[in-house]
Amino acid sequence: MYPKDAELIASHERREARRIQRQVYISFTLENSYAVEIRQVREIIDVSAGEITRPPGLPAFMLGMLNLRQQMISVIDLRGLYRMPPLEDSSQSKILVVVRDGECYGLMVDAVENIMTVEDSKRYGAPKMMRNQNAQGDPRSEMDEVIDIGEGETRKTLSVFQCDRLLERLAGEMPALAA
Which of 32, 47, 76, 105 could cysteine-pair with 93, CB 3.0–4.6 Å? Predict the structure, then answer.
């Protein structure tokens, strides 16, 4: 075998291995459709406003605290955070429970659509015009990747939401917002 052939075969094998690797995503809506890797979400719960208590001094986008099986969760209204108008009908709203550094957070979304497995070959870097890490008040600040799912008329491109990036940003901003 010639060195060029070995390089070509190795390149093909790497490409094939990447193609068959898969990630599982949860798709949700927040005016538009988004996806989040399932490993970032501990569970999905229904929104039950009676269970959420709002201590004084919280920023407007914080719905309050939720006692979920003896664990306190800070609930963040993503519509409020991104300056979107409130939903007229929030009956489909869900809370995505995520854990970061031992703390639990709830991210309220309009609805959860689907759980899907996506091949890595369907994941792409988001175009620069879509990414804006400095855009506060815009969900694009938490995204740098898109996934392409379906075919034909059912084809859909979803922005991949990074929960860790959002929570890291909020951790830096919260002391100033609560003051």
Answer: 47
> Considering Cα of 173, then 98, then 79, then 124, what sign does the dihedral take?
positive
Calculate mean pLDDT across residues 106-121: 91
CA dist 141 and 169 (Å) reads: 10
pTM check: above 0.85: no
Q: Which of 118, 99, 97 is nearest to 109 (CA)?
A: 97
Q: Are strands 62-68 and 71-77 parallel, antiparallel or unpaired?
A: antiparallel
Contact call for residues 36 and 161 (beta carbons, < 8 A): yes
pLDDT at 175: 58
Task: Return the percent helix, strand and coil in the chain, to nearest 5.
Answer: 30, 40, 30
Residue 17, helix vs strand vs coil: helix
